[in-house]
Amino acid sequence: MSQGIMIWAxxxxxxxxxxVYELLGGGRKLAESLGGSLSAVLIGQGVEGLAQDLFEAGxxxxxxxxxxQLKDIRDxxxxxxxxxxxxxxxxxxxxxxxxxxxxxxAPRVAAKLKVGLSADCTSLExxxxxxxxIRPTYGGNVITTILSARKPVMATIRVKAFAxxxxxxxxxxxxIRESVSLDAAKIRTQVVDLVAEVAGKVKLEEADIIxxxxxxxxxxxxxxxxxxxxxxLGAAVGASRAAVDAGxxxxxxQVGQTGKTVSPKVYIACGISGAIQHLAGMQSSDIIIAxxxxxxxxxxxxxxxxxxxxxxxxVPALTEEFRKALS
Length: 327
Ligand code: FAD
Description:
Oligomer: single chain
Order of helices and strands: EEEHEHEHEHEEEEEEEHEHEHEEH
Bound molecules: flavin-adenine dinucleotide
């Protein structure tokens, strides 16, 4: 009998990260296939109120660890808590969102428990009672299936890879309070200040529509064209590495292998050639619209719709048409 699936319920300032609801959705399916429970580990200070939200979103159990030292997410403190909770509850698998915090914390926990970690999975499947961890490799050219030799199976899951579970108002579950004695000497990080990421109105990883600009804009001021189209569509703004390396747009907006991985419903690439490293971060988008003056640009190889033309004409024309259609 499986000991169930455990997820890390990432929260900041008393607000659960969106990916937590997705982990509950995917985790629930896994737990049902394996015949175990779904538990969420909630760590922080004064966060008990979030347990009800987790139950309603699909958690069967919430393991709550509260301490003043856990107010902010600090890897050295959280790794102690998570490894102790996992060692005690012995889950079959532990899932983290592939957020900045999840990507930093999960490998530390895995190393402490001496188990493997599959990073950036896009799907998890159960076959013959084993969890298959699936992730794109080599810039998205190869899809790898990973089986872990040791338990628990640990994985980070890309944002938007799992659908959220249907919410059930009033649903309750088992609240388990745990206390972990923290080794303060090992917590060497102090949070001095939290500065909000310089981002547009819509968060890149969570946006349904993204309009991205590349070196083809030719000039940093031309990002106004990209922003104009994004604003009409209620979209987030992305950028290629060439554009951010040139200092045209902040790094927080970079899409690709060394930037953010996105999977929106619509991705509009303006003046982006479609280098493999860029495609690695956006090719799972539902619809890709490419605007490029070179008909042989590789981006057209993945595009659902391609517009061969000068972005200086195409982008303002599209913006105008969408403005009329959506007003
Ligand atoms: P270019 O390749 O220069 O393409 C510009 C395009 O604009 C061309 O196709 C051109 O035809 C078109 N164009 C020009 N003028 C116009 C116009 N007026 N109208 C319409 N189209 C026009 N890149 C990323 O994006 N993200 C990453 O995370 C990333 N990680 C990397 C990691 C490594 C290890 C390495 C080696 C590279 C990485 N890169 C990444 C860089 C990547 O290889 C490319 O260099 C980069 O994506 C190119 O950006 P671009 O498409 O904006 O520029």
